[in-house]
Amino acid sequence: MKHILALFVLTLIFVSCKKNTNETQDNTVITEEVKEIAYASFGDKIEADNAIEAKLMADTYKDMTVGDSISTKMIAKVDEVCQAKGCWMKLDIGSEEQVMVKFKDYGFFMPKNIAGKEVIVNGKAFVSELSVEEQRHYAEDAGKSEEEIAAITEVKRTYTFEADGVLLKEE
User: Could you count the other beta carbons within 10 Å of the beta carbon of residue 119?
Assistant: First the structure.
């Protein structure tokens, strides 16, 4: 009985360590490797599934007017982060457009060194108008020069996102 149990265990180990391969009609072997993506989580716990690509979200924002909002999840690359405390970030959504992301109730902050990294944000997307004072404040947080800050003189229509949860892709 011990030998049968040992043989069963060895067979189970051998089968579980086998690579997943498929053979085609011409006997070509196809090997599939599943690669897990690791994320650091901030704010509410969210899943990485069903996120809209940034370029698709850009089309959605173009169709919105000031005051419109939708609940959504999107994946995008980080362009900038608040260098004072990580309390906001700007995401690239293509065609030189950005989304200003703030965090619900200032309940969490992002690391200040994540520019260029990919994130998944979950929450509310909306279009708003950003006052000159707010634009200057954000430019100051981003470390812009006095000349760049002084050049801000008009209210700006902005794409905004209030995130309740963020996943930061780890490399």
Answer: 23
Can you tell me the distance from the alpha carbon of 73 to that of 70, in angstroms, rounded to the nearest whole number? 10
Task: Give the tens place of pLDDT for each residue, 137-158.
Answer: 989 888 899 999 999 999 988 9
Short-list 162, 169, 166, CA closest to 100: 162
Contact of 43 with 104, CB cutoff 8 Å: yes
Tokens standing for residue 124:
């509310």
Instruction: Please give the structure tokens belonging to residue 165.
Output: 């949860």
pTM for this prediction: 0.71
